[in-house]
Amino acid sequence: MSRASIIFVLLLASWVGTSFAQNDPVRIIFMHHSTGQGIMEQGGVREALTELGYEFWDHGYNDEGLRGPTGEYLGVNWDVPGDNTDPDGWQAIFNQPVTSPPTNTFSQMLEYDVIVFKSCFPSSDIQNDEQLEAYRDYYQSIRQVIEQHPDKLFIPWTTPPLVPNATTPENAARAARWADYLTSEEYIGTLTNIYVFDVFHLLADENGFLRTEYRVDEWDSHPNEVGNQFVGPILADFIDQAIRSFTPGTAAQPAPSTVASDLVTDFEQGKQAFAEHLWSWQDDAAIEFTCSLDALSFGGQYAMRVSYTLVEDSYAVCGMLYDGVQDWSHAEGISLYWRSDHPGQTAYLQLYVENPQDPENPTLFETTLATPENRWTPLVVRWDAFLKPDWFEGGVEAFDPSQIHQWGMTFGNWEAPQQAVVWIDEVRLIDE
């Protein structure tokens, strides 16, 4: 297969800058306990955000208290009531009266531009539907308070997953539903000053448990160093993108696209539409392969998440199938944003062209790629980069963008095992 010329148009640095006071650094406060501290420290969150020009503060348990931008403990705490950062604890904190000067936890938090807050993993042991409903009530109350402070940016987390010995399959499934709810349009609605960081689905397996590779052992639900190093850069990037997209007191302005183009999909139609158009395939040798929607998106609520573990000469593909033939002949190529927790893995962006002689078997054209770094990276591919592979027999000979049947991305390498999680978003046609 020929390796195509790929154009990486890195315009991230030219996005709209932060809309907070331009003469002062944006001040971020991260309210956490142990899981958050592990991700922050082993995942390099403070260093990454400091390098981007932000002023990053954090507050842990009361006996540890507040740390400044250089990571030094300041010997003060904000008297978090009962050290409780479970959903009911946050509901109580957000309903504290706002005082000036600040005399309680919430008033102290409001001294910052960006407020990042989370509950610890025990909150993922949701034991019945009544408890899940109570969580929703707590966060509806929190949402009402957030709505009253449009000049502040709030970044709540979903709850981290538990190891199997710390919960049950039923409770883990409720935790997944809780994460789905917090990242849904039903919860976020039209608010433009809330961006939910979905740590649950980053760390959880298909059953809602902490992934095996991220476990310290079978009893400890704190993510290990591998898990913390995986989540940390994603969190820093998420905070940065949320700040860049946020305009205090007004509707958020999305970051401009790298090209003026037609949208193919941004996966914002939701899970039902995704399931209706999704197509996937894996060979018998594939160890693990899933295609799903994920809240770690480039700009909206959803992106497509592909997770795979493949032996050598094993392949799996995930893509979108259309109801009829798509005419993309007015465009010059296709673009998307993607990121991966394992850069340098082999991938193939594939377009399938209608075959009039055999409508049930469209002809494959593809270009060879390597997965990018763990940050949203633009990818632009012109039509002339899509070639029919030598091993594909029959079908049409020439690529015809007016006869697109479906698109997909295949992962695998004929001589080496492959393992990664890849996110794909904002698939567009390019006009120039």
How would you describe the overall organization of this protein?
The radius of gyration is 23 Å and the shape is elongated. Strands 6, 8, 9, 11, 14 and 16 form a six-stranded antiparallel sheet that branches. Strands 3-2-1-4-5 form a five-stranded mixed sheet, covered by helices on one side. The chain has a five-stranded antiparallel sheet with strand order 7-10-15-12-13. Helix 1 (34-42) crosses helix 9 (225-245), helix 2 (45-51) runs parallel beside helix 9 (225-245) and helix 3 (87-94) packs parallel to helix 5. The protein has 432 residues and is an alpha+beta fold. It has ten helices and 16 strands. The protein has helices spanning 34-42, 45-51, 87-94, 105-109, 129-147, 169-182, 185-188, 199-203, 225-245, 271-277; strands at 27-31, 55-59, 66-67, 114-117, 153-156, 261-265, 278-282, 288-294, 303-310, 316-326, 333-340, 346-353, 363-370, 377-382, 404-411, 418-430. 23% of the residues lie in helices and 25% in strands.
